Amino acid sequence: MRSKTLSRCSTLTAIAVSAVLLPLSSVHAATASVTVNRATTDAFGRMADAVLTDRTAALLDKSGPAPRTALASKSTGGIKLTAALTKTEDTAVTSLRGTRSRLAALGEAYTAADTKVTVDRTRRWGKVATAWVTETTVLTYKKIRGDEPDTTGFDAHHVLTFAAQQDGTWKLSGLRTTDTGAHQVNEPVTAAPARRTPMAVVDAPPAATTYPAPANPKKLTGGAYDYAAMATYAEKYWKNYNSAYRKFNGVGGDCTNFVSQSLLAGGWQPISTVTPEEYDTWYYVANGQSDSWAGVNEWSWFTQTAKRTAPLANVYQMDVGDVLQVDFDKDGSKDHTMITSYRSSSGMPYLTYHDADTYRRSLSSILASYPTSAYYAYRT
To answer: In this model, does residue 245 exceed pLDDT 60?
Structure first.
């Protein structure tokens, strides 16, 4: 979700998962004519499901007996992880246990999870096969404060790489996420890259992330904007995109485009008058849109210049219709935009957003996944 013009929005073992052998011999191992058949595709999907299920299981409340890992429970022979990827996934699960601990410190936990994987397409070339998959995960909130919603969920997209073996089997050698923007809660926390010089622009101040926050109540009804309509729109189109709008997933990310749509649904009025500064405008038309409509930083510059938003001192002050932006690597350029579609009675904001498409993810979950990032909260 980032560019400077359209800013962007379990211990695993190498135990076999699925019994599937391809007609692959040492003579044909390097030949592109050997195809990936239906059984192989199904096995690829089960392997992806097992790895992603193990990641998600590392986030669950650890009271009670430890659940058996998905890889172990599905070990019937066939596909294995390479030694290198086994080590990578062990590290990933350890990182996610750290996320679970940070969540617990913030007063949040998950009691159950359900992960399903759909294989969208595959490609085979020589000794390498690639599978593009969609992950659908639902996590059940533990009732700690008592007012949490029942669940949070998301769709995420991954690319898996499989290496053909001489004995006719496959090994999973690589897995990466293709979504831009905020990583999902079952993705491991990675170290931030080296810090770069911030851009010299007028911008909103970062918000504190301590809980609880000082009171800053918001008038939800009877004002200029319909915040309930913003939330309703976001929760209607978080997964099934509104066909009336163009998508920006492949050109920097769709997160800010989605938030702009939600704000428009709640009564924000477009400004299309041409000025020397692009972030003085905010509009969407059939043949184009302002940079501030779809760009993370440009949206911030517009909303601050036009006084459409006011910065909040603490992220936990956000209420329905308020917006959160994240600078993941603290380089001075914001990377992702989300809208608050629900707030519990105990003061927990829940964010809904595109890239990856996510419904009611708690603020605590985001902070736990990105503990070193910079956060910007906007009262709309």
So the answer is: yes
pTM attached to this predicted model? 0.72
Helix (H) or strand (E) holding 183, with range, is none
The 3-state DSSP class for residue 241 equals coil
Residues 244-266, mean pLDDT to the nearest whole number: 95
Instruction: For tokens 């080296």, name the residue.
Output: 194
* Dist. CA 44–CA 173, nearest whole Å: 12
Taking the C-alpha atoms of residue 31 and residue 11, their distance in angstroms, rounded to an integer, is 35
User: How many residues comprise the chain?
Assistant: 380
The β-bridge relationship of strands 80-81 and 170-177 is parallel
DSSP 94-157: HHHHHHHHHHHHTT--EEEEEEEEEEEEEEEETTEEEEEEEEEEEEEEP-SSS---SEEEEEEE
Separation of alpha carbons 341 and 350, rounded Å? 6
Helix (H, G, I), strand (E, B) or coil at 235: helix
- What is the chain's mean pLDDT, rounded? 84
> Is the CB of residue 35 less than 8 Å from the CB of residue 214?
no
**What DSSP string describes 25-48?**
-TTTTT-TTPPP-HHHHHHHHHHH
Distances (CA, A) of 136 to 186, 311, 357: 12, 33, 10
CA distances from 69 to 12, 112, 174, 269, 379 (A): 8, 14, 19, 51, 43
Distance CA 200, CA 209 (A): 24
Please state, in angstroms and rounded to a whole number, the distance separating the CA atoms of residues 293 and 308: 13
Cis omega before residue 212 (within 30°)?
A: yes
